[in-house]
Specification:
This protein has 367 residues and is mostly beta strands. It contains five helices and 15 strands. A hairpin with a 2-residue loop joins strand 12 and strand 13.
Length: 367
């Protein structure tokens, strides 16, 4: 055996005993990631608007400020680790050494569109429709040289409708999704790397399609606690279990199933006011989301706190997502909103295990 491989193999052997299951990568994969929500702690159950209707709380479709026709809205998300690692992993002949340089890091990217889309109100109901395309990739390189590449791609239409009751204090809604998913849930080990096996997620890819739906409601409490509107909300996503099996649409010959999107329960509360200090339209929220999407982990991974307000054409946001700080900003221009955000995503089952600091940009064009 070439001597240059002896030390890495020995390190991998002994470190494999030191790395426990608790440190395994186990992030929550979502079919949609809103830049607005990301900047304010990933709250969406009592605060979501427009595209957030589809995967947050469908009852919020009744709260969309006005009608909208969605034009192309490219969204990209990545990490500084990913940008810095690209040239390292792609360059040079010593793949093992290049991989070792990235040990302990997660290389993340996401591309997303919500186009075409339309949001409107009638005399009786509120509606939202869009074709949603989302591609997320993660390459987790552990310190024992095990490489865990994952890719999840979703595409399909979604339709949301909602209605207000009790003098517009109670809203209920539902979303129907028809989604095709491609995913690669399995990883690679040190032996595969040494043998020159491609790190492409196609190695263990599976696919499938389903029709599933979500339901939700919001309730505006009577009176104004602290002089603000106080709203409660709850929703259930993927009521049928998110198995991607009840539609006969597959494109791969593999018998591997697409990665399941578990049923998730969400609850939250928010306070809102038209004016707060120098800001307009302030809203702050506390929510518990993705209950059921992290079955073996801590409840602290499910806690989200966030706020936003308007200051002229600027809409700043702050929050806490899974124990990590978040921040965002929208520049509200005619036809175009420029949305940016950064947030920390927990890669293990418990909050505080391993943060993945992500940065997102969306060019949101609409009329």
């Amino acid at each position: 055996m070439n001597k240059k491989f002896i030390l890495p193999i020995a390190f991998s052997f002994f470190s494999s005993f030191a790395v426990s299951d608790a440190n395994a990568y186990d992030q929550i994969i979502r079919p949609y990631q809103s830049v607005r929500s990301s900047g304010m702690g990933s709250v969406r159950i009592t605060t979501g608007e427009y595209d957030e209707n589809f995967f947050g709380n469908p009852a919020r479709v009744t709260a969309n400020p006005t009608w909208r026709v969605q034009l192309p809205d490219p969204m990209v998300e990545t990490t500084f680790n990913t940008i810095g690692a690209a040239s390292t992993l792609l360059g040079g002949d010593n793949l093992l050494a290049n991989v070792a340089d990235q040990a302990g890091k997660n290389l993340h990217s996401r591309i997303q569109f919500t186009f075409p889309g339309a949001y409107f109100h009638t005399g009786w109901f509120s509606y939202a429709f869009a074709v949603i395309t989302s591609i997320q990739t993660d390459v987790g390189i552990r310190k024992n040289f095990n490489v865990n590449p994952e890719a999840t791609a979703d595409v399909g239409p979604a339709m949301t409708f909602g209605k207000e009751f009790l003098e517009e204090t109670l809203s209920v809604g539902a979303t129907v999704h028809a989604t095709y998913r491609f995913s690669s849930p399995e990883g690679f080990g040190l032996t595969d790397v040494l043998q020159g096996v491609s790190l492409s997620p196609l190695k263990s890819a599976g696919d499938g399609s389903h029709i599933d739906f979500g339901v939700g409601s919001t309730y505006l409490m009577p009176g104004k606690p602290l002089g603000m509107d106080f709203t409660l909300g709850l929703s259930v996503n993927n009521v049928l279990g998110g198995a991607y099996r009840n539609l006969d649409v597959k494109f791969l010959d593999s018998s591997q199933a697409a990665r399941r999107q578990r049923r998730a329960y969400n609850v939250g509360a928010s306070l809102a006011t038209d004016e707060l200090w120098i800001f307009d339209n302030f809203i702050g929220a506390l929510e518990l989301t993705d209950i059921g999407n992290n079955p073996d982990g801590s409840v602290f991974k499910l806690i989200h706190i966030g706020a936003e307000a308007e200051w002229g054409i600027l809409i700043p946001r702050v929050g806490i997502n899974q124990g990590y700080w978040t921040a965002g900003l929208t520049i509200d221009l005619p036809v175009l909103d420029i949305e940016i955000a950064t947030y920390g995503e927990e890669l293990t089952t418990n909050a505080g295990g391993l943060e993945d600091r992500r940065y997102a940009l969306r060019l949101n064009m609409s009329i």
